[in-house]
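User: Modeling request: complex.
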Amino acid sequence: MKARINLNVMMSLAIMAVSAYALYASLQWPFKTALFPRVLSIPLFFLATTEMFLSLGRSQKDVQGQAMDFQMTDDIDPALARRRTFMIFSSILGFLLLILLAGFPLAVPLFVFLYLKLAGEKWLLSSLMAVLCWLFMEGIFDRLLHLPFPQGWLFSLWG
Amino acid sequence: MKRLLIGLLGLAIFFLNLLPAHGASYYEGKTITLIVGYPPGGGYDRYARLYAKHLPKHIPGNPTIVVQNMPGGGSIIAANHLYAVAKPDGLTFGTFNNALVLAQLTKIEGVRFDLTKFSWLGSLASDAAVLTVRSDLPYKTVEDLRKVKEAVIFGATSVADTTYTVPFFLKEFAGFNFKMVTGYAGSAPIMLAVERKEVDGRAGSYASLKPFIDRGLVRPLIRSRVSSAEIKSLPIDEDLATTPKGKALMAIRTAPTLIYRPYVAPPGTSAEALKILREAFAKASQDKELLAETEKGNLPIDYANAEECLKIIREVLNQPPETIQEITKYLKFGD
Amino acid sequence: MFDAFIQGLLVILQWHTLAVMLLGIFLGFWVGLLPGLGGSTTLALMLPFIYKMSPVEAFAFLLGMHSVVATTGDITSVLFGIPGEGTTAATVLDGHAMAKKGEAGRALGAVLMSSLMGALIGAFALAISIPIVRPLVLMFGSPELFMVAILGITSISSLSGQEGRSLLRGLIAGLLGLLFATVGEDPQAAMQRFTFGQLYLWSGLDLVPVLVGLFAIPEIVDLARRGKAIAGDVPVGHISGVMEGVKDTFRHFWLTIRCSLIGTWIGILPGLGGAVAQWMAYAHAVQSAKDATDRDRFGKGDVRGVIGPGAANNSKEGGDLIPTIAFGVPGSSSMAILLAAFFMVGLVPGPDMLNKHLVLTFSMVWTLILANIITVAVSLAVLNHLAKLTRVRGSVLIPLILFLAFIGSYTANNNPADLVTFLFFGFLGYLMIQCGWPRAPLVLGFVLGRIVESNFYISTSRYGAAWLHRPLVLLLIGLSILVMVYPFLRFRRGEATGKEAIQ
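Assistant: Request completed. Predicted assembly structure:
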């Protein structure tokens, strides 16, 4: 429970910082340019402050589900949930890194293969999916649509 | 004797084959990338795709040309890429905003190229700018415009765009009673506003206004120095300017429109490749099939070769600092 | 005029026209399904192919392709939680939630049927409005457009949630979205706002990586956390079928009609953009809920949250065509590309299209109708199989979904910086879910930001303060106030009836 409240507080603080910065930046602009950002950032700042104070207050029950949005699945052991969340975010960042280093056409099958293998899938399935993804990348995005994929950093270092 | 002659012939054939590869095999089997600094569907993109289709037959070796869109920063991103990242091997060239010369002149942050150092290929078209007002207004000539009681209202997209700068310059430097309303999402919504009588007229590229002029919605009254057959008789904005400074600024604003669809290759592209490409562009611009499609698609062609383009670029860039200061005040760069 | 109507149908039923239309439908089917192949980009890529076609064929091809994209884009939104298109993001909220409950088939059925009905109503609106369309569009000037955008923003109150606390967060999200929209070069003085010296941000944040990040990443994270298939623990044999969803569309017949009309209307108003219609329809669907507990179901898998946007994003197509054909003003970015097609076949959009070329205009109407009927029929046949994908192990699907999400964000502008945007908004979306902050208002603020600001400046610059007196503006102000306080009225009425029940 407490962890969630703190997250709310932190989010509110972050929004307060963002709106304060927006207001500050707008001071240097001509009137017309600055009007809209000011009209937005001032109420945003106050609303965020309100939200922050409300979140600091008495501990709230499940804040999550109140929004008209989905709710992260709850019925798992929180430690397990935390671990899995960490894993998925690392995978996502890892994918980005792979793309930057090796370029899209190589990164995609590589990532698919690595993820599936590390998730415990069989060799056959992992390789098959990787190959399929590679075909998709090459076939449609490269050959058919000629989309420009910048070279990965590793390759620009090489040649 | 016969054996000697055959021997000499053999030797000759042998040496002929050693000659460096000339045009025909340079582009044989290769793929050329044409980079467009705008998203698909817009004017620059359509010109590019059209030329991508017709250029190969004028390049010995018949290579394939592939169009890649690299939008962003008013095409500065594409220009930067062509300047520093693309390899000068003759396999890449591209097109970007003709107003980039102004961006370079006014030292816009983010500009990392020097237009004079590009290997120029030419420009596909020039663009005339006109000022138009709604037909049902009582203004039929420039004199009428001078005598208006209420300000004539022109719709514009942003202060960096010709929809704004054309009437703005006429207001500042020729004393017309104009008012500009900026914020429209594009030139088409402005035309709707004209029909709605929300604004009185629109200025801008003649090519884009032509359908509305032909339809009778608006009437052209003033044009820029760059002209087109139908509007030749209109008074020129530079002639209406009351000060030399005004004249000069209008001229600088108009200059880039002579090279409205510029095409360049990265700096340092080999002379041989450049020659081939330049010839290809010149020939393609006279290609009957291409011209038939441009007619149909309302894409005027007015090819200017590389020397002409460079001359104009150098003229615009060659300004004394006071003028540059003035230009920065009046001409903004935008998307 | 009636015979032009019939002629329009006959003209597209000719063999070669039908053939190119089917080709267009086939292309559009896959384009909508795959995130990253945007409808407008593909339209632009197809332009060079229409040079050799006659006007009727050209539009049968292009419209056949484009009108289908919104339909199949909904499928990706429902199954994987990735918005297949910018216009199908709203269907992710309830559609994917239903998939997680094992109701993928039902959601797909609902989304398809509502798409079809939306398309039909949009086409119908296009057809009957032809005589009155010009005065109709001319009524809406910049002040009116500004008010419509404000109306859109006030519907944030419906998209936030139940209690006051949710409203507070909804407002924060909405304001944040509006603020994000100001990033880029401002049209009034060409100043760079919040661009931090990055060329990439000059044109502002692009909608696609924002949407894909905001919606896809939290779903992916959730999928990873659960460690199961999308449909989770739902026992085999209980995956409800497509026909159930189809029936739902008819159970909520009037809602479907109303949302289709909203979509059409937003489409008719030029310049509101493609993404707005679905959210306003969604907000309306929420408002149609009977009471507080009924409203609570939205966002968690209510079929009405699927039907509303599903209908609207198709009916918008028909609406979009109206200003495009009648004035040459694009109703959305894809329409701007369609305009190029007009010029390419030698036509000038405007009054001529409604007089001389009336048959062609009607052929476009029929294309919309026919293309959607064919697509829906084909999709319904394969949908039950597609729904089975929700039973596949999460760990197998995740790399694929990530692949689609990454590629989808990249190909928006071919700029790797979009991937950073994608991740940023992905993380933001995740945090918002964790804190119970609704995402819909953020999106709405983001898509409406520019429209609000620009039209405000045009209105005041042109009319001073006089635009506030215009009749249509006053009407819209009233409507906005109504929309804004509606949830509160409902709440108090609910309280009152609650008290009665207790007594």
